[in-house]
Amino acid sequence: ADFYLRHGRSKDAISHLKLLRSQRDDPQLQLSLARALLGVGKTEEAQEILKAMIGYQADAGEFDVRFATDPHNVDAYAILAAHYRGESSQIEHADRVMRQCTTVNAASAAAHLARGRHLLASAGDSSDRTAQQEEAKNEIRRAAELSPDDADVIAAMASLETSQKNFTKAKSWLERGIAKHPTREEFYRSRAGIALLEEDPEEAAGILRSGLKALPNSWPLLLMCAEVDLSNGNFQATRQAAAKLRDDARFVVLADYLEAQTLMAERNWSESSQQFEELLPQLLALRPDLADDAYLALARCYEQLGQSDQQREANRRLLALEPASVEGRF
């Protein structure tokens, strides 16, 4: 069952989980079964399991922990609330569920963090959006008071401080995260991101290299570091990163993209344009998130080469892909 769930095969997992549930009473099996049922669209059945776990009587809008099979399971509350939140008519149920979560788990950082995330996710639907966002921040801060070294809490606090442009505090949280959880990739990327916001790409590169020492096989860190090196004019380091990416068949297209960007930064407009032209079909198929920038780069190459017809064609293709693009109109 665990194998099927890890590989997204919810349908195959369900029969195994139901068999296990019939043989022993294990709340964790209930949660796994609910996840699997949600994975195949059996929302009502999944919700019944989750409501039973936390003792929620939805018709009455009340909780009775005497009949709850696992009233302190934070994940059960969070998953149920998320599905209630998906329907505007059910938002009161979602709010009620998450209030109960912190009521019965008052000393749990995970519970307060989960409610904080819920409030932020549903703030757009609230008539008092600002007050709800402030309440969410208070929940996240409460989680930090309870468990300041928890990786998820650190990430949430850093994100909160960054969103408020409190970069000094955000950096402090991220540095704490790196010290306490040196293999948590997002801490290095977020810390480097703040360095870039503060226009210090050299510091960003140093942070990312530190991350790569702890996580030498992290392609997101490697790619980000290569792009920072590129902006710093360190073309040799960028090509070394591309060579390492090319060693893994999954990332060849990213390696080629870096090489095309490097050629462009070196003002090798002809070879760069050729590389982008050859690469774009693969980007559209495998990494469409990079295609916009590739079309912009291609148009720039043709502009520098004085090939106005090809430049217009690159812009036309960009607009076909992303009609809202402002750059593609010029």
Blueprint of the fold:
Elements: H1 2-6, H2 10-23, H3 27-39, H4 43-54, E1 56-57, E2 62-63, H5 74-85, H6 91-104, H7 109-122, H8 129-146, H9 151-163, H10 167-180, H11 185-197, H12 201-214, H13 219-231, H14 235-246, H15 252-265, H16 269-286, H17 291-305, H18 308-321
Antiparallel strand pairs: 1-2
Helix pairs in contact: 2-3, 3-4, 4-5, 5-6, 5-7, 6-7, 7-8, 8-9, 9-10, 9-11, 10-11, 11-12, 12-13, 13-14, 13-15, 14-15, 15-16, 16-17, 17-18
Average pLDDT works out at 91
Q: Tell me the total number of β-strands.
A: 2
- Please tell me what the overall shape is: elongated
Side-by-side strand order of the widest sheet: 1-2
What is the CA-based Rg, rounded? 25 Å
Low-confidence blocks of residues: none
What is the SS-derived class?
A: mainly alpha
How many helical elements? 18
- Helix content, binned percent: over 70%
What is the string of SSEs from the N terminus onward? HHHHEEHHHHHHHHHHHHHH
Share of residues in strands: under 5%
Outline the biggest β-sheet: 2 strands, antiparallel
How far apart lie the N and C ends?
A: 54 Å
